[in-house]
Amino acid sequence: MVTPLRGRDELDLAGLERLIEHILAGGVGGLFILGTTGEGPSLSYQLRRELIERTCRQVRGRVPVLVGITDTAFVESVNLARHAATAGADALVIAPPYYFTEGQPELEEYVDHLVAELPLPLFLYNAPMNTKVPYGLGAVRRAMDKPQVIGLKDSSRDMNYFRQVVGLLKHRPDWSLLIGPEELLAEGVLAGGHGGVPGGANLFPRLYVQLCEAAHAGDVSRTKQLHAQVMRVSDSLYHIGRHPTAVIKGIKCALGCLRICDDFMAEPFHRFRDGERARVQSCLRELTAGVENCCASNAAC
Q1: pLDDT, mean over the chain
Q2: Fewest 10 Å CB contacts: which of 62, 75, 106, 270?
């Protein structure tokens, strides 16, 4: 979920409420806040705590709320985890600490020490493009021996790695294996994953829910149809900007165009300018019609 902002350290409260209801109306299985799309590491600790409280209060147990606690400081991750537990969150998500490059033995010990301090179940978040360090297969296998670690979100875009983790699930049949990049959602579920955490579900939640359902059911034809719509979203909306943040900017700008929430970005990034916003509006008109038609019918789309 994106984090609706009105300023550097101010939530868009009305937008947050509309966004949560919009996503839940699409039938999603949970909300993940303070992740990459949520600009989590760029937000103040005070704002992160406020977002956790308000999200949990509004969701009211309708779906699980997963909270990102990734930080460079071990103690701050633990502090945020405890706050999340008090607020009513269901699970925590953590990527390897960024900035310093830790070795795999150090990362494994980090997870050991962290789990001992956490009040909630934990998902590992493999995002090497942002952290420089992956959760290696050895670290994943070791984490599976800890009952409190309940799953992995993989955003590596490495399907060989993903399939290898699928092979490890025999050690923990209760684990949840989720894929991050929505362009790989269909492939990931068909390969044995359980679902995904697609940023595009901020906009079109029903599309991604139906894609997961079709893939789980083994309906390859329907999966291909829905996947084609996901790729239309990605190929158009996520390539309007020139920088790596184009994906988040595209999603936030589209939400702004739909009047769901403000599109303010956390520093050092800025929202799309007028020219880019006009392109988003044009894309959105075409995408919305195609997605709605595809989700409403089993016919070719």
Answers
A1: 96
A2: 75
